[in-house]
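Assess this:
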Amino acid sequence: MASVTAPAAASRPPRDTPPPAPRRVLNGIDVLKREGFAPLRGLRIGLITNHTGTDRQRNPTIDLLYQAPGVKLVALFSPEHGLRGTLDEKVADGVDSRTGLPVYSLYGTRQKPAPEQLKNLDALVFDIQDIGCRFYTYISTLGLCLEAAANAGLKFFVLDRVNPIGGVLIEGPVYRGEPQFVAFHALPIRHGLTVGELARLFKQERGWHVDLAVVPVEGWRREDWYDTTGLPWINPSPNMRSLTQAALYPGVGLLEFAVSVGRGTDTPFEVVGAPYINDVELAEALNQAGLPGIRFIPVQFTPTASVFKGQRCGGVNLLVTDRHRLRPVEVGMLLIQTLYRLYPKDFAIEKVHTLLLDRDVLEAIRAGRPLAEIRQSWQPALEEFARRRQGVLLY
């Protein structure tokens, strides 16, 4: 098995079944607004958010809480890419031009709120859109802020949001090391949880004593992808520009320090390449593996940013043919295997460890182990995670 399905989840739609018409799904901020912000009244609030923190009408959560009767918004905290989601660098503290509130960066000199930034607060509120991948750092910011709230004796509210790539499938090796910014907790690469469920898991498994409340999503089912919700799409980060890219990211993202994954092109995470790659040769080798839900098309491109900036790269365009059968982590493993086999002197396989963070899997790839064998090696821990997460599921 390549992935695990939560026992309570509905079965996936059959292949070629058209997606259902979008329904009216409400994220946590929409539910909170409908309730007149009642849970936050009388509290001094610090809001952890960025440009993705909006309601269905794209009204920023910052503005909604700033104007909410009985709620005192005191400070803002921003994750990687900054409050506006436009930066690909360390971010400094600042001031929000619209409200005049201080903005404390959690992706600069610090990664969690400092005690002095919390002393005049009663609660922290988290409202950021995740994409369902362990190394996408917004969930590390969530965990670090929850820990800070526990240490400071503050309430913590999560305004929950849908998982864009669904909450049924989980996939990949489960992280086993000490917490770090691209691996905050013992999660598989594709975790299948919402941010509210992740907060519940962090609290439960870390043993934190914190008053945690999740304002839940309404109308979302675990098998739902983002395009079935009727919610507006906002690029969660500068290079996450479509649902297709979010679907591929848990696998393609693993390679982003070793080769170009399309940063500096119009389609990040939909292309993979390097100057030493023969695009036709690579595409043929990848397609021969016959992975379901994906085809590889030979392409050449010149990225304007990141790895191999300004260099002509041969590579592949990843075409998703059936997202219900797609297993992105397997796609990533196949890419790593094939690049190492075809270009062992050029492909910087050690750089894959930066996000994979599983030495056993990496060494199995080096040793030429079959993909099925590598996949089986992480299956017991994945099944254990499926059991672990059962107690925190909200949907």
